[in-house]
Amino acid sequence: MLSTHDPADYRTQARAAGACDFITKSAFDPFVLQDAWAGATSDA
Prior knowledge:
Elements: E1 2-3, H1 7-16, E2 23-24, H2 30-43
Parallel strand pairs: 1-2
């Protein structure tokens, strides 16, 4: 999930709703996305 909200406030809710991770727009870059994707696919 990509959002403007603080991950500390919404990460748990996003994951409970099926998101593989919660990334803020300010932190979003290809490396952050790659790390999130790797984490999601290793949990499968």
